Amino acid sequence: MVANHLEEEESYLTSKKGIASWLFTLDHKRIGIMYLASIMFFFLVGGLFAILLRVELWTAGDTIVKAKQYNQLFTLHGAIMVFLVIIPGIPASLGNFVLPLQLGAKDVAFPRLNLMSYYIYVIGAIVALSSLLVGAVDTGWTFYTPYSITTDGGVVVMVMAAFILGFSSILTGVNFISTVHKLRAPGMTWFRMPLFIWGIYATAIIQIMATPVLAITLLLLVIERVVKVGIFDPQLGGDPVLFQHFFWFYSHPAVYIMILPGMAVISELITTFSQKRIFGYKPIAYSSIAIAIISFLVWGHHMFVSGQSELVGMIFSALTFLVAIPSGVKMFNWAATMYQGSVSLATPMLWAMGFFLLFAIGGLTGCFLGTLSVDVHLHDTYFVVAHFHYVMVGGTFMAFMGGIFYWWPKITGKMYNEKMGVWSVILVVLGFNLTFFVQFIMGAQGMPRRYYHYLDQFQIYHQISTVGSFLLGFGFLFSIITLLVSLKYGKKAPPNPWHAATFEWTETASPPIEHNFHHQPISTKGPYEYDQIA
Amino acid sequence: MDSVKELLSMRLPVASKLSWLPEAASTTADSVDWIFYFLVWSCVGLFLLVVLPVAWFCLRYRRKHEGQKALSQVDHNVKIEAAWTLLPCIYLAFLFYWGFIGFVDLYTIPVEAKHLRVIGQKWNWTVQYPDDDISVSGQGAIIGIPLGQAIRLTLSSQDVIHSFFVPNFRIKQDVVPGRYSTLWFESTKVGEFPVFCTEYCGDEHSKMLAIIKVMPQDEYKEWLVKKKSENVGLPPAELGQKLYTQKACNACHTVDGTPKIGPSFKGVYGHMTQLEGMSPVKVDDGYIRESILEPQAKIVKGYPPVMPTFKGQLSESDINALIEFIKSLK
Ligand SMILES: [Cu+2]
Ligand SMILES: [Cu+2]
């Protein structure tokens, strides 16, 4: 009933026209789309670099580039994927679009700030790319001192880009926290919020608490490089390991800035496609907050062999295992949600199943790395490379894709071709495992990361991985094509194609009108009461 | 260069057979391997424990027709939830404990250990034997080690952070400029085991290889004697040629005229060289000596100021030998 008369209305996509109506829009939905397009663009750029790296590693010596360029390529791949793709990723794109809708709000709390965050992101991205003009950076995305102080190239420019991007991240976080506190629909208590919001909320807390530390660290690095104060440079009496402490104090929580939103999406997908109330709402909500807090106390697990004392190593190992528990709890709750459900394996749910498979492997291999004596052997080998790709790509990015395919009908008003959707998931999951599973094996056998040359006996693993990367790349391209094709040929989407129970599906059309809702939605029940909706 | 190519294509006992870990060759390796394989199998079990039920639910509760409702809306069960929160705690506590015990072993150095010093620099390892008055260095350097003797390494760095990693011994330690770190091992097998640098350190990071050659005691003694006399009585230019690879000048310089990180040595002697911000100078004995001992004093135009100093690492006759060698490259 609600939906029918809404469909007559102009949607947010057509209500205003012209390029300026996009560039200066304050509408959270349009800003979300602009983020989505930018993030996908950089994903393709970062992915292209990844493919070049894999091609280079086809042989043990020179294949297509020289050592210096190889080092620049992996730095660019890492920096782009981390700072321009995965960190903004889900919150800035899907979060922006969905969060106000799920809360029953007209927009985020500070729409102008929201637009500003986007432009800060754009400026950061431009600065990052302009480092190429000064001379590509070859430090790795971790900028470890003293290497980053002594090497040539545009380190200062790249570091400033990360600094600028940090502000975009902080502002988005502030905006979301205010929105959640202030703009919930009447009747929407904290425990009636969809779990997507809990996840984004926990992420926002980490964003505003951790990112300033990164900003300070990067600023110190720039100061060190330019005026040579002697903070990190041992030649001047500084301590290079201090940089690692500062850096990981941000960058470990950043891992959760990346994965929590992914988990948040998965909670929505699993309930909707099982048509069943989430199992353990509160444990899932609280575990997000627990992860947010504990994630600040584990940074030292990146430094077990850096020379920190054994006692410190022991404490960080214990805390690292502690943070595994809330993640495990979520996995079990998702599994239990499907029990006695009405399970549909539509494309978004298949992405969620892919997430489940890959994130389980990513999480479990984390146990290897938390175990002190085993980490000594595995640290800085391909085992670690495989582990974090399973978590970041197999976890976050699978969830991101799942979220895009889930909300696509809402965002665009179009249904994509289901068969193509299913094939996208199959290609990505196969390609992913082919690329990264062998990396566990070669890592355990001693293949260090960031290596341009390698011993001949590793070649077979590298070649399997390279073949896999082509399949993976093709899978992602195919997914994006599936989505783009639907814009032209897709069937018109009904307001609630998945029979979901949250506001963005039940209270507004696909795509929504400019102001989201005709009448202020009122929350009278939990977010997953599938038997109580029309 | 060639030594590295050979080295790269050597069949070293990493990845020699189809197994997760390379051949274990130190006293501490076995306990690491034990927990590693425990992790492998327990993780396989846990993986199946979460994935199989989900697969089963996908089949068993598959939606057969549009609008089919869930069989129930159960959304909590305190007993099960307590179980899946607490049981993993026990498992993880166990991992923590065993990992920690093994870690402590890796850092408990036996008192009778023989002492060696390791210096990391772009891009090779130097190992000094204080008791025997020898040292080895260069990309692909052979580090002789007596079988069954505990060895203590004191590690330091000339320039940036490196990391000393011996996969077969399951040991790794960052080498940080401005501080000393330590590491120990006791080998249990005769053989050649690669040493990698695992902290990214620049262009030739992946060529920063050395080989630990574990030998029985008597063979090791012979090796020491041979090492000591190796450079004795060589004509200076020949000694210089040896030092050129041993001191890893070849990581940055070539002898065939192609520039690398630094200029080639071919034909420089006696010619003028262009300097950054200074008038050109003639390459003579004094200039080469200064280049080696105080590389930052004069910087060749078009090259970065990255050459490390070799002060204290080369004797007077070594320096002369290097000069003679460069002079001989017409
Ligand atoms: Cu971490
Ligand atoms: Cu190194």
Topology:
The complex is a heterodimer of chains A (534) and B (330).
Chain A: H1 2-6, H2 19-23, H3 28-56, H4 67-86, H5 89-103, H6 111-134, H7 147-150, H8 155-182, H9 195-227, H10 240-274, H11 281-294, H12 310-338, H13 347-370, H14 372-378, H15 382-412, E1 414-415, H16 418-444, H17 459-489, E2 491-492, H18 503-506
Antiparallel strand pairs in A: 1-2
Chain B: H1 2-8, H2 29-60, H3 78-107, E1 114-121, E2 124-129, E3 134-136, E4 141-146, E5 150-157, E6 162-166, E7 171-175, E8 181-186, E9 191-197, E10 210-215, H4 217-229, H5 236-246, E11 272-275, E12 278-282, H6 285-293, H7 316-328
Parallel strand pairs in B: 1-5, 4-10
Antiparallel strand pairs in B: 1-2, 2-3, 5-8, 6-7, 6-9, 9-10, 11-12
Bound molecules: copper (II) ion (2 copies).
One copper (II) ion (CU) binds at residues 120, 162, 197, 201, 205, 208 of chain B.
Structural class of chain B: alpha+beta
Mean pLDDT of chain A: 92
The dominant shape of chain B is elongated
Q: What is the strand content of chain B?
A: 15-25%
With strands numbered from the N-terminus, the spatial order across the biggest sheet of chain A is: 1-2
H/I helix tally of chain B: 7
Question: What is the CATH first-level class name of chain A?
Answer: Mainly Alpha
Order of helices and strands of chain A: HHHHHHHHHHHHHHHEHHEH
| Poorly predicted tracts of residues of chain B | none
Mean pLDDT of chain B: 88
Strand content of chain A: under 5%
State the end-to-end distance of chain A: 9 Å
Write the CATH architecture name of chain A: Up-down Bundle
Report the major sheet of chain A.
Answer: 2 strands, antiparallel
CATH domain topology of chain A: Cytochrome C Oxidase, Chain A
Main sheet record of chain B: 5 strands, mixed
Fold-level CATH name of the largest domain in chain B? Immunoglobulin-like
Give me the CATH superfamily of chain A: Cytochrome c oxidase-like, subunit I domain
Walk across the major sheet of chain B and give the strand order.
Answer: 3-2-1-5-8
**How many strand units of chain B?**
12
Number of strands of chain A: 2
